[in-house]
Amino acid sequence: MQTFLAAVFVFGLLITSHEFGHFITAKLSNVKVLEFSLGMGPKLFGFKTKETDYSLRILPIGGYVKMLGEEEQCTDPRAFCNQSPWKRLIIIVAGAFMNFLIAVILFILVAYNLGVVKPIVSSVEAGYPAMSAGVKPNDKILMVNEQKIYTWNQFKEFISENKDKPFKMTVKRDNNIIEINLKPVYNKNEDRYLVGISPKLVKGDLIESIRTGFSETITSIKQMIIFLGKIFKGEFSTNDVGGPVAIVKMSGEAAKVGLWNLLFFAGFLSINLGVFNLIPFPALDGGWVIILLYEAITGKKIDENKIGLINLIGFAILMAFAILVTFKDIIRLSSY
To answer: Are residues 189 and 228 in the same domain?
Structure first.
């Protein structure tokens, strides 16, 4: 039951926030919205207001906002196809924007309640370069090789990319600025490079929590883009990608650890959903972005019927991919 409720929460939050982004910007732009749907496939239940159908569908693999004139020609001035390219572009990217916004909010909540890991030295471990170089507890890390450091994650990323190359770390100690030369060492047990320092954890700091929320979101977006790039290069396979079944399992595991862990997981997935939807592929928001940028720059309008056909083909490919990933998830999980 805990796994089920956690999965419902995660799917509901991600899908609702994404589609609400499209929905609210369409309404504010006076575009006629025909349907607001959570889920895909057969309808479970729904209701209708003056001009919009609201529905909940059986498959929790997405949702959609259907607008008048979105994929067909229409003479109604409120139709999506009759709006300026820039107005349509705002409506399209609003879904991913809402996913990123939700992630920021969730990361802020988690950081405020669990604490913010600051780039301030809490302890120095014996036998590592930091102790030999004279790093002390309460040293505040300001820069590494002239690169400003605002979060502990930034420092960790630098060490990971720098590997065993010597670098200069600038710290603030008792109102004095000190430069320290360090050379990371490789730890076989942890499979990473270390200098031997631990950060300070601070709870209840709203300003730092907000800063952490934004930095965590930006970092996660970068990581997702890098991951997608490796997939397109053939460095990853479908075995490295999880679908709805895997998400249900991971949601349950996150919920067992606690509420804040579940919220962090939901924020991470929200970013994945936002970035994935911006991939320039037919039927995804990114496909629309390419079309609308072309229209805005050239002033030439693409036939809506052709767009509808292209998006239909793209949607079919995406559904086939979703089925493949789900099938692999089931096989992978059943083997445990």
So the answer is: no
Domain count, the chain: 2
pLDDT at 88: 93
Q: How far is residue 94's CA from residue 176's CA, in Å, rounded to a whole number?
A: 46
Residue 26 has pLDDT above 80, yes or no: yes
With respect to residue 328, please indicate whether it lies within any of the assigned structural domains.
Answer: no
> How far is the C-alpha of 62 from the C-alpha of 152, rounded, in Å?
34
The pTM score is 0.75
Structural domain boundaries enclosing 274: 2-113+221-285
- Backbone phi, psi, residue 62, to 5°: 155, -160
Alpha helices (H) in 29-84, listed in sequence order: none
Q: What pLDDT is stored for residue 139 in this prediction?
A: 95
Residue pair 142/170 in contact by the 8 Å Cβ criterion: yes
Q: Which residues contact 312 (CB under 8 A, 6 or more apart)?
A: 283
* 10 located within any domain: yes
pLDDT of 247? 67
Residue 40's pLDDT is what? 79
Per-residue pLDDT tens digits for 198-229: 999 888 888 889 988 998 898 889 888 887 77
Domain shared by 191 and 61, yes or no: no
Answer yes or no: do 100 and 140 share one domain.
Answer: no
Q: Is residue 147 part of a domain?
A: yes
Do 101 and 135 belong to one domain? no
The SS3 of residue 202 is strand
Same domain, 40 and 184: no
H/E element holding 270?
helix 259-277
Name the 3-class secondary structure at 184. Answer: coil
| CA 97 – CA 117 distance, rounded (Å) | 26
Which residues make beta-bridge pairs with 121?
199
User: Within a domain: residue 131?
Assistant: yes
Tokens of 199: 């950060």
Kindly list the catalytic residues.
19
What is the model's pLDDT at position 238?
Answer: 53
